[in-house]
Amino acid sequence: MVQKAKILLVDDRPENLLALEAILSALDQTLVRASSGEEALKALLTDDFAVILLDVQMPGMDGFETAAHIKRRERTRDIPIIFLTAINHGPHHTFRGYAAGAVDYISKPFDPWVLRAKVSVFVELYMKNCQLREQAALLRLQLENGQGRAGAAAAQEPAGLLAELSARLAAVEEQAEALTKQLDESADAAAVATAAHLERKLTGLRRALDALEPGTGSGASPLPSPS
C-alpha cells in the first residue's frame, strides 16, 4: 500500500486552514495543520513533508522568519515552500519571499485549481523520490546479503534479484518520464529542476544495476545516493 505524502499548512487563522484543507482534500494526502511558525518547526522535527504552504503574515514568527529556520536545518532545507499572502507590497515583497527560499509566492485570493495543481506537482515528485530511495535501499540490502553467500545457488539468486530490481526500477523510470512530460514550459522552475534531479538519480541507479549484470565484469559498483 502506497504511503500518503504529508502536506504542512501553516496559518494563524483557523478559517484559512479550513479553506486550504477543503481545496487540497481532493489530492487524498495527509494534511497537517500548524497555527504558528513555532508549531510548524515543531512538526518538521519528526515528520517528513512533500511541500509546505506558509502564510506570510503571522503574529510572532512570520512566514519569512519561519522559512529561514526551515532552510537552515539540514533535514528540512530541501522541502518546497509555497508562500501565501493576503497583501502585495510590490516586487520587493515578492523578492523577499523567493530570497527566503520559496518555490512560489501566491497572493490571496488565489485560484483553488491553480493552487491544487501546483501542490500536486510537488507531491508527485516527492512520491517518486521516495520510490527511488526504497529501490536503492533494497538493492543495497540484497547486495550485502548476496556478498555473504557462496556456491552456485548463491550465484543464481543475486541474478534473479537483479532482474526483479531492474524491473521495479523500470516502472519508476516510466513514471518519472511521464511526470517530466507533464511539466511544460509554464511549470514552476523549481518543479522542473526537481524532476531533472530525480531523472539524474534514476540514471545513476540504472548504470549501477547494469554494471552488476553477469558479463559486465565489474562486480558491485558503488550506488548513487538518492538524496
TrEMBL record:
SUPFAM superfamilies xrefs: CheY-like (SSF52172)
Entry coiled-coil feature ranges: 162-189
Start and end residues of each Response regulatory domain: 6-123
Keyword Manganese carried by entry: no
Entry protein name: Response regulator
Keywords annotated in UniProt: Coiled coil, Phosphoprotein
PANTHER family tied to this protein: RESPONSE REGULATORY DOMAIN-CONTAINING PROTEIN, STRESS RESPONSE REGULATOR PROTEIN 1
Gene3D superfamilies per UniProt: 3.40.50.2300
Modified residues (4-aspartylphosphate): 55
Statement: the UniProt record of this protein carries the keyword Coiled coil: yes
PROSITE patterns given in the database record: RESPONSE_REGULATORY
